[in-house]
């Protein structure tokens, strides 16, 4: 079994602010507006990939944010949302998975509360502070590097990772993350090969937990990725490159098994 864990935003789907050309289709509507798109080629490749491997959307999005997305392939059998803290099976939340996630981050609740207090006083904060189901803390900042520095200076970084992605700022327990979720799901499903794709520093654990990781050519701090990383080596849309590479790997593994 090949499991394909893929980040969504800027890996599979793109904001209306991102130029992916005119040959595209909407995959997300929010408050009556078309906000996210895939290229039509990506839509075709997604259908092929979903027939060849176990495709698992793996995202920091909340369940509500994830449910707004329609990739055109029906409901994936599995999806990991809330940074891997919540598993969906046929679109329904797996209660046991969430309880285990809470157990994993139980000793980090004080750190998350401290992060909220620090962000409450952060003059650069531009958005409300959200504690996502006791799994991680999120907000936005006009100076995300400064907000991250304040958090890192105050928090126990042995327990908590702090990231920013654009203007978004996160405090996440190290025991919870996309990488840990990939390993947990692999153990549950018995997958013998895992492919992952992601575009940001936030995805480093996801990428380093796979047998083959796929990253864009401009990936920040590529030295953080292991020898398993394959970088986009041509011009074009990252999502298309990712899906073509997944199909290539699947075909090669089938050929080698003959």
What does the overall shape look like? globular
Put simply, the count of helices is: 8
Nearest-angstrom radius of gyration? 18 Å
- The helix/strand series, from N terminus to C terminus, equals EEEEHEHEEEHHEEHEEHEHEEH
In spatial order, strands of the major sheet run: 5-1-13-14-15
- Give the low-pLDDT segments: none
Share in helix: 25-40%
The major β-sheet equals: 5 strands, parallel
- The amount of beta strand, in percent, is 25-35%
How far is the N terminus from the C terminus?
Answer: 15 Å
Overall pLDDT level: 94
Provide key terms for this protein.
34% helix; five-stranded parallel sheet; 8 helices; single chain; four-stranded antiparallel sheet
Briefly say what this structure is.
This protein is an alpha/beta fold and 258 residues long. The protein has helices spanning 40-52, 63-67, 95-104, 109-120, 144-154, 178-189, 204-208, 238-257; strands spanning 2-6, 14-15, 24-30, 33-39, 54-57, 78-81, 86-89, 92-93, 130-132, 136-140, 160-165, 168-173, 193-197, 212-215, 229-231.
Secondary structure elements and their pairing?
Elements: E1 2-6, E2 14-15, E3 24-30, E4 33-39, H1 40-52, E5 54-57, H2 63-67, E6 78-81, E7 86-89, E8 92-93, H3 95-104, H4 109-120, E9 130-132, E10 136-140, H5 144-154, E11 160-165, E12 168-173, H6 178-189, E13 193-197, H7 204-208, E14 212-215, E15 229-231, H8 238-257
Parallel strand pairs: 1-5, 1-13, 13-14, 14-15
Antiparallel strand pairs: 2-4, 3-4, 6-7, 7-8, 9-10, 10-12, 11-12
């Amino acid at each position: 079994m090949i499991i394909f864990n893929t980040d969504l935003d800027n890996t599979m789907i793109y904001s209306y602010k991102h130029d992916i050309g005119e040959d595209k289709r909407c995959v997300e509507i929010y408050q009556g507006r078309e906000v996210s798109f895939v290229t039509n080629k990506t839509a075709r490749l997604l259908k092929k990939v979903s027939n060849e491997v176990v495709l698992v959307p793996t995202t920091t999005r909340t369940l509500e944010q994830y449910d707004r997305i329609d990739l055109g392939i029906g409901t994936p059998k599995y999806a990991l949302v809330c940074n891997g803290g919540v598993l969906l099976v046929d679109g329904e939340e797996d209660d046991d998975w969430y309880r285990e996630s809470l157990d994993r981050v139980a000793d980090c609740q004080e750190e998350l509360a401290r992060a909220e207090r620090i962000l409450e006083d952060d003059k650069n904060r531009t958005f409300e502070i959200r504690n996502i189901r006791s799994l991680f803390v999120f907000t936005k900042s006009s100076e995300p590097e400064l907000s991250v520095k304040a958090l890192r200076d105050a928090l126990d970084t042995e327990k908590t990772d702090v990231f920013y992605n654009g203007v978004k700022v996160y405090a996440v327990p190290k025991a919870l993350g996309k990488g840990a979720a990939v390993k947990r799901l692999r153990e549950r499903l018995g997958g013998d090969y895992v492919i992952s794709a992601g575009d940001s520093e936030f995805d480093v654990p996801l990428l380093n937990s796979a047998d083959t990781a796929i990253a864009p050519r401009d990936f920040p701090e590529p030295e953080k990725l292991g020898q398993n990383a394959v970088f986009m080596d041509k011009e074009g849309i990252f999502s298309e490159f990712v899906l073509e590479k997944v199909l290539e790997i699947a075909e090669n593994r089938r050929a080698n098994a003959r």
